[in-house]
């Protein structure tokens, strides 16, 4: 039953991704100043939104781990698995943002990169979470999860800074598409629909791989606990 | 198709292709990791105590 539900969800996600692609490439009209290259927007912005959401999940997991680590070991492990899964899948989406952005920027601005506030804070966010993953991968000892949780909380503090950067400072990056004042927002309904479908599709995809990553981490935790117990039994 | 439109098209295709390569590459890596964990779990169940 569980396998069937996951298969059904994966099939719906695949259809959504196909539909989002069709809307972005064939249905949405060409933007007047940037022309075809503006279609990168339909992958770039949803990826950023999903990355922010997953970093928020990582933040919640990190806080949960620190809250439960002394009294409720099992809950703490579950929170830790969510924190790791959120950080890792968030990094995947943030990588997409940091690659599609410069490709778009090269055509729109004539440069691959500029050290403006939006781009720089996004790169810092990516670097913080990559360091989180490297810490999880290479450090050993009983304090690794605690150190990672603290780093995860500090990393998440950069998310609102990234979001507000092109409101607080003058940037090369375009003004906010949503919530940026009376002139912001997508005026064309077909463009708005293409954007909305891609947000839904990439969110569905992100949740699918987030769930899979969480499952793999829980398997790893259970295996480690079994091995530790077996080692104790042998002594 | 003029030169600008061709370049616009190439850049758009590159952005979309890279997005899919990253996402599917990550999924493939996750699937490999999942299988490895499953095998390890099965081995630890079978190992004599």
Overview of the structural elements:
The complex is a heterodimer of chains A (235) and B (49). With 235 residues, chain A is mostly helical. Helices cover 77% and strands 0% of the residues of chain A. Chain A contains seven helices and no strands. Chain B has 49 residues and is mainly alpha-helical. Chains A and B meet through α2, α3 and α7 of A and α1 of B.
Write the layout of secondary structure elements.
The complex is a heterodimer of chains A (235) and B (49).
Chain A: H1 2-27, H2 41-68, H3 73-108, H4 117-138, H5 144-156, H6 158-168, H7 189-234
Helix pairs in contact in A: 1-7, 2-3, 2-5, 2-7, 3-4, 3-7, 4-5, 4-6
Chain B: H1 3-46
Write a concise synopsis of the structure shown.
The complex is a heterodimer of chains A (235) and B (49). By secondary structure, chain A is mainly α.
The largest pleated sheet of chain A is described as:
none
Helix/strand structural class of chain A: mainly alpha
Structural class of chain B: mainly alpha
Q: How much helical structure, as a percent, in the residues of chain B?
A: over 70%
The termini of chain B sit apart by 71 Å
Separate helix tally of chain B:
1
In which range does the helix fraction of chain A lie? over 70%
The domain count of chain A comes to 1
**What is the N-to-C order of secondary-structure elements of chain A (H for helix, E for strand)?**
HHHHHHH
- Poorly predicted parts of chain A: none
Biggest interface, chains and residue tallies: A-B, 34 and 26 residues
Summed over residues and divided by their number, the pLDDT of chain B gives a mean of: 88
| Poorly predicted regions of chain B | none
